[in-house]
Amino acid sequence: MISLTSPVRTRAHDWPAGVKLAALCAATLGLFALEDVRAQAVVALGVLTLYALPGAVFLRYGLGRLRPLWPFVVLLALWHGITGTWAEGAVVGLRMLSAVALANLVTMTTRLDAMMAVVRRLLRPFVRLGVRPRAIELAVALVIRFTPVLTQKGAALADAWRARSRRKPGWRVIVPFMALALKDADDVADALRARGGMND
């Protein structure tokens, strides 16, 4: 498993997880209220400043985690370039970058168990309705933990393809990637059953 928390210690590591998640929700809502491209650009620069404040190592680490977002930004730029709506595309692209970067910033400065404690508190009122907080906690934790693992395995499959062929991997690695993902899911299910499963 890969730890999503930044190895570089910052002041934000000591802030309560609930406060950071609430601020993230408020900031994301604020981003959707801004329709001016200049305002979105200012917010994006502000987010970049937050990444730069702890130092160059933290900045490189954080920006590296945003790399999977760039294909979506390129697709947005192409679509809005074709339709001639550059200003709208810039607003959508900057909004998406800022929102994901802020969420990544919270993830990098918050331990997973602290996040799960917030989820547990939020779900507690719904226990009487039959909601199982432990199962939801586990599902959220698995999604957070496995996303970078699957990204790494996808990149390894693409590298293996490039080592054997001059053609780009493209859709050809989708089937083996799905087989790897299903195998991982099966292994995790076996591990959970071996430890007693989810009885409560």
Question: How is this structure best described in words?
Answer:
The chain is built from 8 helices and no strands. The longest helix is centred in the last third of the chain and has 32 residues, at 133-164. The protein is globular and about 55 Å long. The chain is mostly helical. α7 (133-164) packs antiparallel against α8. It has helices spanning 17-33, 37-52, 56-65, 70-83, 86-108, 112-123, 133-164, 174-194. The protein starts with 16 loop residues before the first helix and ends in a 6-residue tail after the last helix.
Brief sketch in words of this structure:
By secondary structure, this protein is mainly alpha-helical. The chain is built from 8 helices and no strands. The relative contact order is 0.11.
Order of helices and strands: HHHHHHHH
> What is the C-alpha radius of gyration, as a whole number of Å?
20 Å
Strand content: under 5%
**Mean of residue pLDDT?**
85
**In which range does the helix fraction lie?**
over 70%
- Taking pLDDT < 50 over at least 5 consecutive residues as the criterion, the unreliable ranges are none
What gap, in angstroms, lies between the N and C termini?
A: 25 Å
Global structural class: mainly alpha
Q: Which outline best applies?
A: globular
Tags for this model:
8 helices, mainly alpha, single chain, 200 residues, 0% strand
Structural topology:
Blueprint: H1 17-33, H2 37-52, H3 56-65, H4 70-83, H5 86-108, H6 112-123, H7 133-164, H8 174-194
